[in-house]
Structure formats: C-alpha cells, structure tokens
Amino acid sequence: MRCLKCKENAVIELRQHNASYCRTHFLSYFTNRVRQNIEHRRMFAPDDRILVAVSGGKDSLALWDVLLGLGFNASGLHLHLGIGEYSNLSLEKTRHFASSRGAELIEVNLAKEYGMGVTELSSKTGRVPCSACGQSKRYLFNKVALDRGFSVLATGHNLDDEAATLLGNVLSWQTQALARQSPVLPRTRPTLVKKVKPLYTLTERETALYCLLKRIDYVEDECPNALGAKSLLFKEVLNRLEENMPGVKQSFVKLFLKRIQPLLKSEQDVDVRDCAVCGQPTTREICAFCSLWQKALSGGVAYNASSGAQIEDRRID
Amino acid sequence: MKVVIRNPRRAEVELKGPMTVGEILAALRLSPESHLVIRNDEVLTRDIRVEDNEQVEILSAISGGSA
C-alpha cells in the first residue's frame, strides 16, 4: 500500500478517510487534525496556559507531545491513583516523557495527599473502582487547574472513547450526560475550568501509531480495574461495525454533536451551586467528591477540603 | 511464522506462512481497527505479506482505563 501523498510505503490505512500515509505524512496529518480541532472548536489560543491531564498512556502523551510541538504553553498533570504497580509504572513513563521534553509536570499522589488510593477508596465506600477513580480525577483536574491558574484543561479522549461513551449513554438514554458530552465544556462558572478534548476525531489506533513513530514510551497495558468494563465492550462492538462500515465511528460522534446535542442543551439548565465543604461547583449541597471522601474517612478521620487536601485526625460525626 | 502479541497479555503464537497482515489478524480474530502489526520496527498495512521464517508483533491500541 502506498502513501496518498508521496507514494512511499504506507504505515497506516485510514479507510474512514479513503487514505493511506507513510510515516512523514501520517505525522503531518495527525498534527494537522489536532490543530484543526483546536481551531474549529475554539478550544484555546496561543496565549492560554494549558494543563494536560497525563496518565502515561498513549493518548495523553500523544496529545501533550503534539501541543508542545505546536508551541503551546502546556504543562502536565499526573495523578498517582494508588492502583498498585500500574500506577507506579504510569508515573515513571510520565516523568520520563516530561523530562525528555523539558516540560513542567505537576504530580498529585492520592494516597499521600488524601490518605488512600483508589483501590482502598473503592473498598471503603462500596463504589466500583472506575467510579471512585473517575470522580476523583474529574474533581482534582479542575481543582489543580484552578489553584495553579490554568485557563484550560485538556484531556486525551479520542474518537473511540467518545463513540463508546456516546453508545453507552444512548443505550440507557442518559439525557443529562448526553447534553454534557462535547469536545469543549466552557467555563460556565468561575470555579469551573474550561475542558477540551483535542483528539476527539482521532482513533486509538492512530494515537498508538503516533506514539510508536515518535518513539514515545507509554503504558501499553490496560488499567487492571478496567478489565471487563462496559466501555471495552462498546469499543469492540463499534470496531466490528467500523470494519464493515468505514467511518461509522466518526459519523456517529460528529452527527450527534451537530444534530442531536444542540437539542439537549436545555437539559444543562440545572441548579449549580458551590459545595458547602470545598467550594467547587455541584448540584448538591456537598459535592460528590467530598461526599465520597467523607464516607471513606468516616471510620476515624475527617476530610477537610476547605483548607486544600488535608486529613485531620478526628471523627466527622 | 512467530507472532508475538504484546498486550493486554503477552503471548506467542505460531502460524503457517506466508500470510498477509490482514490474514494474520483474521486468523487470530483481532480487529484491524484496533491493532497494529510490526515487523522489524516497521508498521505494516494489511496487504503486506509476511514470510514463514519471519516474526511480527501485534500491538493492541485499545485502552479502557487511565492511571
């Protein structure tokens, strides 16, 4: 198979675009797609300070690499979530990348700063690990971005992530979640940082290839907690469809954003207020993160988010 | 040919060559939409023929969680 641009040997065939590319032209195509997404969706401008949520996986490292290559002021944020060796390896890969690029990396260790990692948090609260993990990540991404004065938070969500989430939300008609599913979530309140997904049109296979070609060393294994996750099943189903209907994942997400999501906007008009404990935005009196940690720590220590992330040695009740 | 599957669990499989990359993935029931096939540091498209005495690696691009 030959490159569409130069007729050299291709390294990838993109049936959804009826194209194949060599190494050089694939990297150029990938970077241009990210740039187009940023510009088209007005994600951020050259003078913005961008915080990239970096897990050590292929997507977030590819995103960080592209943003740095495009000259954006992009720092990394890595959360050590306390998921055994998987988290240690993830931190190691993230540090190695940051050091090789001379980029600023902010680290937050859940166990050190809050008293326990995701595994223990999950067992103490009875929440499934992915739920406790996702809750903690969403909260801490926003908090760190706010505390450190970043204007935008960028995550490495790719087309497969977006299509799988969309399928899951459609299957159970989660209209509020559907209304919020977007490559750009604007800053609607002073305490809510703008969130963007510059890779939302690129597949996982493309981000993996980008990392291989750029020799970016990333964590290849899945999170051990994700084994059996519904999102993996949805991705598998969508890829089966894609094999027979090239471009279906892209049209599924793009047409949703164009035709359906605008109709759901009114669903977003919910009563948002500041959390009584930490001050971050919530629809309840106490936000889900503070509730989760209060429950986890109610066995002997209290959670005090108002002074940052401190654990006091006293009972809540 | 020797096929090394890198992730999510490392495994080695012997297949009778020659086969194209597309045929290798089909024989192993792996989706071409979520896997990359590598030979000697070179990423191969599905039409490339792999000889019986050669070795390839298969990398799954699927991830379901984050660290």
Distance between the termini of chain A: 68 Å
Helix content of chain A: 40-55%
- Please give the most extensive interface between any two protein chains, plus how many residues each contributes: A-B, 52 and 26 residues
Q: Please name the CATH architecture of chain B.
A: Roll
Q: What do these coordinates show?
A:
The complex is a heterodimer of chains A (317) and B (67). Chain A is an alpha/beta fold and 317 residues long. Helices cover 46% and strands 13% of the residues of chain A. Chain A has two domains: 40-270, HUPs (Rossmann fold); 272-317, no CATH class. In chain A, a hairpin with an 8-residue loop joins strand 7 (184-185) and strand 8 (194-196). Chain B has one helix and seven strands, in the order E-E-E-H-E-E-E-E. Chain B has one helix at residues 21-27, and strands at 2-5, 11-14, 19-20, 35-39, 42-44, 49-50, 55-60. The model of chain B has no long low-confidence stretch (mean pLDDT 92). Chain A binds chain B through residues 1, 10-13, 20, 55-60, 78-81, 83, 86-87, 89-91, 130, 133, 137, 160, 203-205, 207-209, 212-213, 219-227, 229, 231-232, 235-236, 239-240, 242-243, and chain B through 6-8, 31-36, 38, 42-48, 59-67.
